[in-house]
Amino acid sequence: MDFDSQVVPRTGGFGRHNWRLAAITWVPNIVLALSFYSELFFTWVPTHECRPDVELLPAWLHNLTVEALRNVSLPVKEELRRCQLYRYGASIEGTAEELLNNRSLVPCTRGWDYGAVAGLDNNVVTKWNLVCHNSWKVPLEQISYTVGWIAGYLALGFACDRLGRRTTFVVSLVLAVLFGFGVAVSLDPIMFLLLRVFQGMALAGVFLSIYIIRLELCDPPHRLMITMIGGLFAVAGQLLLPALAVLCRDWRILQGVITFLLLLLTLYGCFPIWFPESARWLLSTCQFEKCKKVLQSFAEGNGENLEDELYSQDHLFSEIDSLYEGRSQVRYHVICEVVNTRVIWRNSLILGFTTFIGSGVQHCFTQNLFNYHPEFYFRYFIRSTMGGVSCIALCLTANRLGRRAVLLISTIVTGVTSLLLLALTQYLFPEIVLALSVVGILASHAVAMLSIFFASEVIPTVVRGAGIGLIMAVGFVGRAAAPIMDIHNNDGFFLRHVVFASFAVLSVLCIMLLPETKRKNLPEGIKDGENLRRPSMFHSRNMAGVPLLSPSKKRSDYNPENYSLLMTTTKKMLSREKMPFVAGQYTKVQSDENQDMKEDS
User: Is the entire prediction scored with pTM above 0.90?
Assistant: First the structure.
Protein backbone atom coordinates (compact mmCIF):
# COMPACT_ATOMS: atom_id res chain seq x y z
CA MET A 1 0.00 0.00 0.00
CA ASP A 2 1.48 3.31 -1.05
CA PHE A 3 1.61 5.43 2.09
CA ASP A 4 2.04 8.84 0.46
CA SER A 5 -0.85 8.52 -2.03
CA GLN A 6 -3.30 6.26 -0.20
CA VAL A 7 -2.83 6.97 3.52
CA VAL A 8 -1.56 10.53 3.98
CA PRO A 9 -4.42 12.26 2.06
CA ARG A 10 -7.05 10.44 4.15
CA THR A 11 -5.55 11.56 7.46
CA GLY A 12 -5.61 15.23 6.55
CA GLY A 13 -2.47 15.43 4.41
CA PHE A 14 0.39 17.48 5.76
CA GLY A 15 -1.83 19.35 8.19
CA ARG A 16 -1.25 21.31 11.36
CA HIS A 17 -0.56 18.16 13.38
CA ASN A 18 2.22 17.19 10.97
CA TRP A 19 3.68 20.69 11.17
CA ARG A 20 3.59 20.49 14.94
CA LEU A 21 5.43 17.17 14.97
CA ALA A 22 7.96 18.46 12.44
CA ALA A 23 8.71 21.44 14.70
CA ILE A 24 9.20 19.05 17.61
CA THR A 25 11.79 17.10 15.62
CA TRP A 26 13.74 20.29 14.79
CA VAL A 27 14.56 21.12 18.42
CA PRO A 28 16.90 18.14 19.11
CA ASN A 29 19.11 19.24 16.22
CA ILE A 30 20.21 22.28 18.24
CA VAL A 31 21.35 20.15 21.19
CA LEU A 32 22.95 17.54 18.93
CA ALA A 33 24.96 20.25 17.19
CA LEU A 34 26.11 21.60 20.56
CA SER A 35 27.25 18.15 21.60
CA PHE A 36 28.95 17.26 18.33
CA TYR A 37 30.86 20.50 17.77
CA SER A 38 31.90 20.78 21.42
CA GLU A 39 34.64 18.34 20.40
CA LEU A 40 36.36 21.23 18.62
CA PHE A 41 36.44 23.29 21.83
CA PHE A 42 37.51 20.40 24.04
CA THR A 43 40.45 19.35 21.84
CA TRP A 44 41.61 22.72 20.46
CA VAL A 45 45.36 23.04 20.98
CA PRO A 46 46.06 26.66 22.02
CA THR A 47 49.32 28.49 21.58
CA HIS A 48 51.75 27.34 24.24
CA GLU A 49 55.35 27.58 25.33
CA CYS A 50 57.50 26.07 28.05
CA ARG A 51 57.25 27.63 31.48
CA PRO A 52 60.71 28.95 32.49
CA ASP A 53 62.59 26.95 35.11
CA VAL A 54 65.03 28.94 37.23
CA GLU A 55 66.72 25.72 38.32
CA LEU A 56 68.16 25.42 34.82
CA LEU A 57 69.74 28.90 35.01
CA PRO A 58 72.87 30.12 36.78
CA ALA A 59 72.25 31.49 40.24
CA TRP A 60 72.97 35.07 39.24
CA LEU A 61 70.11 34.95 36.70
CA HIS A 62 67.42 33.94 39.21
CA ASN A 63 66.38 37.51 40.01
CA LEU A 64 65.46 38.50 36.46
CA THR A 65 62.04 39.88 35.58
CA VAL A 66 59.44 37.59 34.08
CA GLU A 67 59.97 38.88 30.55
CA ALA A 68 63.77 38.72 30.83
CA LEU A 69 63.51 35.21 32.27
CA ARG A 70 61.47 34.12 29.25
CA ASN A 71 64.00 35.61 26.86
CA VAL A 72 66.88 33.80 28.55
CA SER A 73 65.11 30.45 29.02
CA LEU A 74 63.24 30.01 25.72
CA PRO A 75 64.53 29.63 22.16
CA VAL A 76 63.77 32.34 19.64
CA LYS A 77 62.05 30.02 17.16
CA GLU A 78 58.42 29.48 18.02
CA GLU A 79 58.34 25.80 17.04
CA LEU A 80 61.23 25.11 19.45
CA ARG A 81 59.96 27.07 22.45
CA ARG A 82 56.72 25.08 22.42
CA CYS A 83 58.43 21.98 23.77
CA GLN A 84 62.01 22.91 24.73
CA LEU A 85 63.94 25.39 26.88
CA TYR A 86 67.57 26.11 27.65
CA ARG A 87 69.70 24.54 30.37
CA TYR A 88 72.82 26.48 31.26
CA GLY A 89 75.83 24.46 32.35
CA ALA A 90 77.89 27.14 34.10
CA SER A 91 76.74 28.49 37.43
CA ILE A 92 79.26 31.32 37.53
CA GLU A 93 79.18 34.67 35.82
CA GLY A 94 80.75 34.94 32.41
CA THR A 95 80.58 36.81 29.18
CA ALA A 96 77.49 36.63 27.03
CA GLU A 97 79.33 34.59 24.44
CA GLU A 98 80.47 32.04 27.03
CA LEU A 99 76.96 31.86 28.42
CA LEU A 100 75.42 31.18 25.00
CA ASN A 101 77.99 28.53 24.13
CA ASN A 102 77.42 26.73 27.42
CA ARG A 103 73.73 25.93 27.08
CA SER A 104 71.65 23.10 25.62
CA LEU A 105 68.02 22.40 24.77
CA VAL A 106 66.03 20.12 27.09
CA PRO A 107 62.32 19.21 27.26
CA CYS A 108 59.99 21.34 29.36
CA THR A 109 60.38 20.63 33.06
CA ARG A 110 57.73 22.81 34.74
CA GLY A 111 54.81 22.54 32.36
CA TRP A 112 53.51 25.06 29.84
CA ASP A 113 51.97 28.49 29.66
CA TYR A 114 48.88 28.46 27.42
CA GLY A 115 47.19 31.13 25.38
CA ALA A 116 43.46 31.58 24.75
CA VAL A 117 41.46 28.34 24.62
CA ALA A 118 38.63 29.16 22.18
CA GLY A 119 36.34 30.92 24.64
CA LEU A 120 37.17 28.64 27.56
CA ASP A 121 39.61 29.12 30.40
CA ASN A 122 40.73 25.50 30.00
CA ASN A 123 40.01 22.33 28.08
CA VAL A 124 41.27 18.75 28.08
CA VAL A 125 44.50 19.80 26.35
CA THR A 126 45.45 22.30 29.04
CA LYS A 127 44.01 20.17 31.85
CA TRP A 128 46.23 17.15 31.13
CA ASN A 129 49.00 18.89 29.12
CA LEU A 130 48.34 17.02 25.87
CA VAL A 131 51.11 18.77 23.96
CA CYS A 132 54.62 17.93 22.79
CA HIS A 133 55.31 14.26 23.61
CA ASN A 134 51.61 13.76 24.48
CA SER A 135 50.26 15.65 21.46
CA TRP A 136 49.38 12.39 19.66
CA LYS A 137 46.62 11.79 22.20
CA VAL A 138 44.54 14.70 20.83
CA PRO A 139 44.04 13.36 17.27
CA LEU A 140 43.66 9.87 18.76
CA GLU A 141 40.74 11.13 20.84
CA GLN A 142 39.23 12.84 17.78
CA ILE A 143 39.55 9.65 15.74
CA SER A 144 38.01 7.61 18.57
CA TYR A 145 35.08 10.01 18.84
CA THR A 146 34.52 9.73 15.09
CA VAL A 147 34.73 5.92 15.29
CA GLY A 148 32.06 6.05 17.99
CA TRP A 149 29.71 7.89 15.63
CA ILE A 150 30.48 5.40 12.85
CA ALA A 151 29.73 2.42 15.11
CA GLY A 152 26.56 4.10 16.36
CA TYR A 153 25.26 4.70 12.84
CA LEU A 154 25.86 1.07 11.88
CA ALA A 155 24.50 -0.58 15.03
CA LEU A 156 21.61 1.74 15.87
CA GLY A 157 20.60 2.00 12.21
CA PHE A 158 19.82 -1.70 12.40
CA ALA A 159 17.93 -1.04 15.66
CA CYS A 160 15.77 1.57 13.89
CA ASP A 161 14.52 -1.12 11.50
CA ARG A 162 14.09 -3.74 14.21
CA LEU A 163 12.91 -1.87 17.32
CA GLY A 164 11.41 1.20 15.70
CA ARG A 165 12.48 4.79 15.23
CA ARG A 166 10.98 6.13 18.45
CA THR A 167 12.33 3.34 20.68
CA THR A 168 15.82 3.78 19.25
CA PHE A 169 15.61 7.52 19.82
CA VAL A 170 14.63 7.19 23.48
CA VAL A 171 17.17 4.46 24.30
CA SER A 172 19.99 6.29 22.52
CA LEU A 173 19.09 9.54 24.27
CA VAL A 174 19.17 7.94 27.72
CA LEU A 175 22.58 6.40 26.99
CA ALA A 176 23.89 9.73 25.67
CA VAL A 177 22.86 11.44 28.92
CA LEU A 178 24.56 8.82 31.09
CA PHE A 179 27.80 8.87 29.12
CA GLY A 180 27.66 12.67 28.87
CA PHE A 181 27.69 13.13 32.64
CA GLY A 182 30.49 10.58 32.81
CA VAL A 183 32.55 12.67 30.37
CA ALA A 184 32.07 15.75 32.56
CA VAL A 185 33.67 14.01 35.55
CA SER A 186 36.49 12.25 33.68
CA LEU A 187 39.62 11.78 35.79
CA ASP A 188 42.22 11.21 33.07
CA PRO A 189 42.56 11.23 29.26
CA ILE A 190 41.87 7.50 28.94
CA MET A 191 38.57 7.77 30.80
CA PHE A 192 37.63 10.81 28.73
CA LEU A 193 38.46 9.00 25.47
CA LEU A 194 36.45 5.86 26.28
CA LEU A 195 33.38 7.72 27.48
CA ARG A 196 33.45 10.01 24.44
CA VAL A 197 33.45 6.94 22.18
CA PHE A 198 30.30 5.57 23.82
CA GLN A 199 28.65 8.96 23.90
CA GLY A 200 29.37 9.35 20.18
CA MET A 201 27.66 6.01 19.53
CA ALA A 202 24.57 7.10 21.46
CA LEU A 203 24.43 10.53 19.82
CA ALA A 204 24.62 8.90 16.39
CA GLY A 205 21.53 6.86 17.24
CA VAL A 206 19.68 9.99 18.38
CA PHE A 207 20.54 11.90 15.21
CA LEU A 208 19.75 9.01 12.86
CA SER A 209 16.40 8.13 14.42
CA ILE A 210 15.18 11.74 14.57
CA TYR A 211 16.28 12.26 10.95
CA ILE A 212 14.24 9.27 9.76
CA ILE A 213 11.19 10.17 11.86
CA ARG A 214 11.21 13.68 10.38
CA LEU A 215 11.58 12.34 6.85
CA GLU A 216 8.82 9.72 7.10
CA LEU A 217 6.47 12.26 8.60
CA CYS A 218 6.36 14.37 5.44
CA ASP A 219 4.56 14.09 2.14
CA PRO A 220 6.58 14.54 -1.10
CA PRO A 221 6.07 18.33 -1.54
CA HIS A 222 7.24 19.17 2.02
CA ARG A 223 9.94 16.54 2.47
CA LEU A 224 12.93 18.58 1.33
CA MET A 225 11.90 21.79 3.05
CA ILE A 226 11.28 20.14 6.42
CA THR A 227 14.64 18.34 6.27
CA MET A 228 16.57 21.48 5.33
CA ILE A 229 14.91 23.48 8.11
CA GLY A 230 16.15 20.79 10.47
CA GLY A 231 19.62 21.39 9.06
CA LEU A 232 19.25 25.12 9.75
CA PHE A 233 18.42 24.35 13.39
CA ALA A 234 21.66 22.37 13.58
CA VAL A 235 23.53 25.36 12.17
CA ALA A 236 21.85 27.56 14.78
CA GLY A 237 23.15 25.26 17.52
CA GLN A 238 26.61 25.40 15.98
CA LEU A 239 26.55 29.21 15.98
CA LEU A 240 25.30 29.34 19.59
CA LEU A 241 28.08 27.10 20.89
CA PRO A 242 30.84 29.80 21.09
CA ALA A 243 28.56 32.03 23.18
CA LEU A 244 27.73 29.10 25.46
CA ALA A 245 31.44 28.35 25.84
CA VAL A 246 32.15 31.95 26.88
CA LEU A 247 29.39 31.76 29.49
CA CYS A 248 30.57 28.44 30.92
CA ARG A 249 34.34 29.17 30.80
CA ASP A 250 35.22 25.64 31.98
CA TRP A 251 35.04 22.59 29.73
CA ARG A 252 33.46 20.43 32.45
CA ILE A 253 30.68 22.98 32.99
CA LEU A 254 30.11 23.23 29.23
CA GLN A 255 29.82 19.45 28.95
CA GLY A 256 27.43 19.37 31.92
CA VAL A 257 25.18 22.07 30.45
CA ILE A 258 24.98 20.29 27.08
CA THR A 259 24.20 16.98 28.80
CA PHE A 260 21.48 18.67 30.86
CA LEU A 261 19.88 19.87 27.62
CA LEU A 262 19.99 16.28 26.36
CA LEU A 263 18.30 15.24 29.59
CA LEU A 264 15.43 17.63 28.86
CA LEU A 265 14.91 15.89 25.52
CA THR A 266 14.04 12.67 27.35
CA LEU A 267 10.61 14.26 27.91
CA TYR A 268 9.93 13.22 24.32
CA GLY A 269 9.68 9.64 25.49
CA CYS A 270 7.03 10.54 28.07
CA PHE A 271 4.46 11.80 25.54
CA PRO A 272 3.84 9.29 22.72
CA ILE A 273 1.03 11.45 21.33
CA TRP A 274 3.39 14.36 20.69
CA PHE A 275 6.23 12.15 19.52
CA PRO A 276 4.70 8.98 18.01
CA GLU A 277 6.29 6.09 16.20
CA SER A 278 6.57 6.31 12.44
CA ALA A 279 3.24 5.12 11.00
CA ARG A 280 4.97 4.45 7.69
CA TRP A 281 7.37 1.98 9.32
CA LEU A 282 4.57 0.34 11.33
CA LEU A 283 2.55 -0.26 8.17
CA SER A 284 5.56 -1.58 6.23
CA THR A 285 6.35 -4.09 9.00
CA CYS A 286 2.69 -5.21 9.31
CA GLN A 287 2.10 -3.79 12.80
CA PHE A 288 -1.46 -2.82 11.95
CA GLU A 289 -2.98 -2.14 15.36
CA LYS A 290 -0.23 0.29 16.37
CA CYS A 291 -0.37 1.85 12.93
CA LYS A 292 -4.13 2.45 13.20
CA LYS A 293 -3.72 4.22 16.54
CA VAL A 294 -1.07 6.53 15.14
CA LEU A 295 -3.09 7.26 11.99
CA GLN A 296 -6.19 7.99 14.06
CA SER A 297 -4.24 10.51 16.15
CA PHE A 298 -2.97 12.13 12.94
CA ALA A 299 -6.49 12.40 11.53
CA GLU A 300 -7.87 13.90 14.73
CA GLY A 301 -4.92 16.29 15.05
CA ASN A 302 -5.44 17.50 11.49
CA GLY A 303 -9.15 18.09 12.12
CA GLU A 304 -10.27 15.39 9.73
CA ASN A 305 -14.00 14.58 9.88
CA LEU A 306 -14.09 10.94 10.97
CA GLU A 307 -17.86 10.75 10.38
CA ASP A 308 -17.44 11.26 6.66
CA GLU A 309 -18.07 7.99 4.84
CA LEU A 310 -15.29 8.35 2.32
CA TYR A 311 -12.61 9.58 4.70
CA SER A 312 -13.63 7.92 7.91
CA GLN A 313 -11.20 5.77 9.85
CA ASP A 314 -13.52 2.86 9.11
CA HIS A 315 -12.83 3.13 5.42
CA LEU A 316 -9.07 3.51 5.67
CA PHE A 317 -8.62 0.78 8.23
CA SER A 318 -10.87 -1.67 6.38
CA GLU A 319 -8.84 -1.10 3.23
CA ILE A 320 -5.62 -1.74 5.16
CA ASP A 321 -7.10 -4.95 6.54
CA SER A 322 -8.22 -6.11 3.10
CA LEU A 323 -4.88 -5.38 1.45
CA TYR A 324 -2.82 -7.03 4.19
CA GLU A 325 -5.19 -9.90 4.88
CA GLY A 326 -3.31 -12.96 6.06
CA ARG A 327 -0.21 -10.98 7.13
CA SER A 328 -0.79 -10.90 10.85
CA GLN A 329 2.83 -11.67 11.70
CA VAL A 330 5.28 -8.80 12.05
CA ARG A 331 7.88 -8.91 9.30
CA TYR A 332 11.29 -7.27 9.57
CA HIS A 333 13.93 -6.84 6.91
CA VAL A 334 17.71 -6.60 7.13
CA ILE A 335 20.13 -4.53 5.10
CA CYS A 336 21.71 -7.70 3.71
CA GLU A 337 18.69 -8.09 1.43
CA VAL A 338 19.84 -5.01 -0.48
CA VAL A 339 22.96 -6.88 -1.64
CA ASN A 340 20.75 -9.15 -3.74
CA THR A 341 19.11 -6.18 -5.47
CA ARG A 342 20.42 -4.26 -8.43
CA VAL A 343 18.99 -0.75 -8.41
CA ILE A 344 18.98 -0.12 -4.65
CA TRP A 345 22.50 -1.47 -4.25
CA ARG A 346 23.81 0.67 -7.11
CA ASN A 347 22.11 3.83 -5.84
CA SER A 348 23.40 3.25 -2.31
CA LEU A 349 26.98 2.75 -3.49
CA ILE A 350 26.94 5.93 -5.57
CA LEU A 351 25.41 8.08 -2.83
CA GLY A 352 27.74 6.61 -0.22
CA PHE A 353 30.66 7.52 -2.48
CA THR A 354 29.48 11.11 -2.90
CA THR A 355 28.84 11.44 0.85
CA PHE A 356 32.39 10.27 1.51
CA ILE A 357 33.77 12.85 -0.91
CA GLY A 358 31.66 15.76 0.38
CA SER A 359 32.55 15.06 4.02
CA GLY A 360 36.24 14.33 3.47
CA VAL A 361 37.18 17.17 1.14
CA GLN A 362 35.91 19.89 3.52
CA HIS A 363 39.05 19.68 5.64
CA CYS A 364 41.16 20.21 2.52
CA PHE A 365 39.43 23.53 1.89
CA THR A 366 39.68 24.68 5.52
CA GLN A 367 43.44 24.21 5.45
CA ASN A 368 43.64 27.39 3.38
CA LEU A 369 42.01 29.37 6.21
CA PHE A 370 44.80 28.90 8.77
CA ASN A 371 46.51 32.18 7.86
CA TYR A 372 43.53 34.27 8.97
CA HIS A 373 43.00 35.45 12.55
CA PRO A 374 41.45 34.66 14.90
CA GLU A 375 42.44 31.27 13.59
CA PHE A 376 39.87 29.13 15.43
CA TYR A 377 36.82 31.39 15.15
CA PHE A 378 37.44 32.37 11.54
CA ARG A 379 37.40 28.77 10.33
CA TYR A 380 34.58 27.83 12.70
CA PHE A 381 32.19 30.56 11.58
CA ILE A 382 33.06 30.16 7.90
CA ARG A 383 32.14 26.48 8.01
CA SER A 384 29.01 27.14 10.08
CA THR A 385 27.80 29.91 7.81
CA MET A 386 28.44 27.90 4.66
CA GLY A 387 26.47 25.03 6.17
CA GLY A 388 23.46 27.30 6.63
CA VAL A 389 23.81 28.79 3.15
CA SER A 390 23.96 25.30 1.63
CA CYS A 391 20.71 24.34 3.42
CA ILE A 392 18.95 27.40 2.01
CA ALA A 393 20.38 26.83 -1.47
CA LEU A 394 19.26 23.20 -1.52
CA CYS A 395 15.80 24.15 -0.31
CA LEU A 396 15.45 26.65 -3.17
CA THR A 397 16.94 24.56 -5.99
CA ALA A 398 16.49 20.83 -5.37
CA ASN A 399 12.71 21.01 -5.74
CA ARG A 400 12.99 23.00 -8.95
CA LEU A 401 15.93 21.45 -10.76
CA GLY A 402 15.72 18.02 -9.18
CA ARG A 403 17.98 16.14 -6.77
CA ARG A 404 20.19 14.64 -9.44
CA ALA A 405 20.88 17.92 -11.24
CA VAL A 406 21.73 19.84 -8.07
CA LEU A 407 23.97 17.03 -6.81
CA LEU A 408 25.71 16.96 -10.17
CA ILE A 409 26.30 20.73 -10.16
CA SER A 410 27.56 20.72 -6.56
CA THR A 411 29.97 17.88 -7.27
CA ILE A 412 31.33 19.61 -10.38
CA VAL A 413 31.89 22.83 -8.40
CA THR A 414 33.65 20.85 -5.66
CA GLY A 415 35.94 19.12 -8.15
CA VAL A 416 36.75 22.27 -10.12
CA THR A 417 37.60 24.35 -7.04
CA SER A 418 39.80 21.52 -5.72
CA LEU A 419 41.72 21.31 -8.99
CA LEU A 420 42.16 25.09 -9.17
CA LEU A 421 43.51 25.25 -5.62
CA LEU A 422 45.85 22.33 -6.24
CA ALA A 423 47.28 23.79 -9.44
CA LEU A 424 47.24 27.55 -8.89
CA THR A 425 47.41 28.31 -5.16
CA GLN A 426 50.96 29.61 -5.31
CA TYR A 427 50.14 31.85 -8.29
CA LEU A 428 46.87 33.37 -7.04
CA PHE A 429 46.21 36.31 -4.78
CA PRO A 430 45.28 35.36 -1.19
CA GLU A 431 41.81 36.85 -1.66
CA ILE A 432 41.14 34.56 -4.63
CA VAL A 433 42.40 31.54 -2.70
CA LEU A 434 40.06 32.48 0.15
CA ALA A 435 37.10 32.89 -2.23
CA LEU A 436 37.77 29.51 -3.88
CA SER A 437 38.07 27.84 -0.48
CA VAL A 438 34.76 29.30 0.69
CA VAL A 439 33.02 28.18 -2.51
CA GLY A 440 34.55 24.73 -2.09
CA ILE A 441 33.29 24.48 1.50
CA LEU A 442 29.80 25.55 0.37
CA ALA A 443 29.70 23.03 -2.49
CA SER A 444 31.08 20.16 -0.40
CA HIS A 445 28.50 20.84 2.33
CA ALA A 446 25.77 20.68 -0.32
CA VAL A 447 27.17 17.42 -1.72
CA ALA A 448 27.25 15.73 1.69
CA MET A 449 23.80 16.92 2.82
CA LEU A 450 22.03 16.24 -0.47
CA SER A 451 23.63 12.80 -0.82
CA ILE A 452 22.26 11.72 2.56
CA PHE A 453 18.83 13.15 1.77
CA PHE A 454 18.88 11.59 -1.70
CA ALA A 455 19.75 8.21 -0.16
CA SER A 456 16.81 8.47 2.23
CA GLU A 457 14.49 8.83 -0.79
CA VAL A 458 15.80 5.81 -2.70
CA ILE A 459 16.26 3.36 0.21
CA PRO A 460 12.99 1.56 1.11
CA THR A 461 11.25 2.10 4.43
CA VAL A 462 11.83 -1.47 5.62
CA VAL A 463 15.65 -0.99 5.57
CA ARG A 464 15.88 2.79 5.67
CA GLY A 465 17.42 2.91 9.16
CA ALA A 466 20.32 0.61 8.38
CA GLY A 467 20.71 2.04 4.86
CA ILE A 468 20.98 5.69 5.89
CA GLY A 469 23.10 4.67 8.86
CA LEU A 470 25.54 3.05 6.46
CA ILE A 471 25.62 6.16 4.25
CA MET A 472 26.23 8.45 7.24
CA ALA A 473 28.93 6.14 8.56
CA VAL A 474 30.74 6.35 5.23
CA GLY A 475 30.56 10.15 5.48
CA PHE A 476 32.22 10.03 8.89
CA VAL A 477 34.97 7.85 7.47
CA GLY A 478 35.76 10.81 5.23
CA ARG A 479 35.72 13.12 8.26
CA ALA A 480 38.20 10.85 10.05
CA ALA A 481 40.85 11.69 7.43
CA ALA A 482 41.49 15.07 9.11
CA PRO A 483 42.61 13.80 12.57
CA ILE A 484 44.51 10.94 10.93
CA MET A 485 46.55 13.49 9.02
CA ASP A 486 47.11 15.47 12.24
CA ILE A 487 48.88 12.49 13.79
CA HIS A 488 51.48 12.74 10.99
CA ASN A 489 51.63 16.56 11.23
CA ASN A 490 49.71 16.89 7.93
CA ASP A 491 52.36 15.04 5.96
CA GLY A 492 50.82 13.96 2.67
CA PHE A 493 48.13 16.65 2.74
CA PHE A 494 48.68 17.50 -0.92
CA LEU A 495 48.29 13.86 -1.95
CA ARG A 496 45.06 13.52 0.03
CA HIS A 497 43.64 16.62 -1.65
CA VAL A 498 44.56 15.16 -5.05
CA VAL A 499 42.76 11.91 -4.19
CA PHE A 500 39.55 13.66 -3.10
CA ALA A 501 39.60 15.95 -6.14
CA SER A 502 39.99 12.92 -8.43
CA PHE A 503 37.13 11.17 -6.66
CA ALA A 504 34.94 14.24 -7.15
CA VAL A 505 35.59 14.23 -10.88
CA LEU A 506 34.94 10.48 -11.07
CA SER A 507 31.67 10.75 -9.15
CA VAL A 508 30.24 13.08 -11.80
CA LEU A 509 29.89 10.09 -14.13
CA CYS A 510 28.33 7.97 -11.39
CA ILE A 511 25.67 10.55 -10.51
CA MET A 512 24.23 10.26 -14.01
CA LEU A 513 23.14 6.72 -13.13
CA LEU A 514 20.90 7.87 -10.26
CA PRO A 515 17.10 8.15 -10.54
CA GLU A 516 15.19 11.37 -10.01
CA THR A 517 13.09 11.41 -6.81
CA LYS A 518 11.73 14.96 -6.92
CA ARG A 519 8.17 14.95 -5.52
CA LYS A 520 7.97 11.16 -5.79
CA ASN A 521 6.60 8.89 -3.10
CA LEU A 522 9.02 7.16 -0.77
CA PRO A 523 9.56 3.47 -1.57
CA GLU A 524 8.09 1.22 1.11
CA GLY A 525 9.33 -2.26 0.18
CA ILE A 526 12.28 -3.74 -1.65
CA LYS A 527 10.27 -4.00 -4.88
CA ASP A 528 9.35 -0.32 -4.70
CA GLY A 529 12.99 0.58 -4.37
CA GLU A 530 13.89 -1.53 -7.38
CA ASN A 531 11.38 0.39 -9.47
CA LEU A 532 13.26 3.68 -8.95
CA ARG A 533 15.25 3.57 -12.16
CA ARG A 534 17.22 6.21 -13.95
CA PRO A 535 15.11 8.24 -16.42
CA SER A 536 16.06 8.17 -20.05
CA MET A 537 18.72 10.69 -21.04
CA PHE A 538 17.10 11.30 -24.44
CA HIS A 539 13.44 11.11 -25.42
CA SER A 540 12.63 8.45 -27.99
CA ARG A 541 12.10 9.71 -31.54
CA ASN A 542 10.39 6.53 -32.65
CA MET A 543 6.94 7.44 -33.96
CA ALA A 544 5.68 3.87 -34.25
CA GLY A 545 4.26 3.97 -30.75
CA VAL A 546 2.33 7.20 -31.18
CA PRO A 547 -1.45 6.64 -30.70
CA LEU A 548 -3.86 7.39 -33.53
CA LEU A 549 -5.89 9.71 -31.36
CA SER A 550 -4.11 12.28 -29.26
CA PRO A 551 -4.91 12.01 -25.58
CA SER A 552 -7.40 14.51 -24.29
CA LYS A 553 -6.30 17.28 -22.01
CA LYS A 554 -6.32 16.30 -18.38
CA ARG A 555 -9.22 17.88 -16.52
CA SER A 556 -8.31 20.17 -13.66
CA ASP A 557 -10.90 18.55 -11.36
CA TYR A 558 -9.63 15.03 -12.05
CA ASN A 559 -8.29 13.27 -8.99
CA PRO A 560 -7.51 9.54 -9.20
CA GLU A 561 -7.86 9.25 -5.43
CA ASN A 562 -11.57 10.10 -5.64
CA TYR A 563 -12.21 7.25 -8.10
CA SER A 564 -10.30 4.76 -6.02
CA LEU A 565 -12.28 5.84 -2.95
CA LEU A 566 -15.53 5.56 -4.90
CA MET A 567 -14.65 2.03 -6.02
CA THR A 568 -13.79 0.97 -2.47
CA THR A 569 -17.03 2.43 -1.10
CA THR A 570 -19.05 0.70 -3.84
CA LYS A 571 -17.49 -2.64 -2.99
CA LYS A 572 -18.32 -2.01 0.64
CA MET A 573 -22.00 -1.25 -0.18
CA LEU A 574 -22.28 -4.36 -2.34
CA SER A 575 -20.87 -6.48 0.42
CA ARG A 576 -23.55 -5.10 2.77
CA GLU A 577 -26.32 -5.96 0.28
CA LYS A 578 -25.18 -9.57 0.18
CA MET A 579 -25.31 -9.92 3.96
CA PRO A 580 -28.97 -11.19 4.12
CA PHE A 581 -28.02 -14.20 2.02
CA VAL A 582 -25.40 -15.38 4.48
CA ALA A 583 -25.92 -18.90 5.76
CA GLY A 584 -28.42 -18.91 8.62
CA GLN A 585 -30.34 -15.88 7.36
CA TYR A 586 -31.40 -17.12 3.91
CA THR A 587 -34.31 -19.24 5.29
CA LYS A 588 -35.76 -16.33 7.23
CA VAL A 589 -35.67 -13.97 4.27
CA GLN A 590 -37.27 -16.58 1.97
CA SER A 591 -40.12 -17.24 4.43
CA ASP A 592 -40.83 -13.50 4.68
CA GLU A 593 -41.07 -13.26 0.90
CA ASN A 594 -43.52 -16.25 0.72
CA GLN A 595 -45.70 -14.66 3.41
CA ASP A 596 -45.86 -11.42 1.39
CA MET A 597 -46.90 -13.35 -1.74
CA LYS A 598 -49.75 -15.10 0.13
CA GLU A 599 -51.08 -11.80 1.45
CA ASP A 600 -51.04 -10.31 -2.06
CA SER A 601 -53.00 -13.26 -3.46
Answer: no
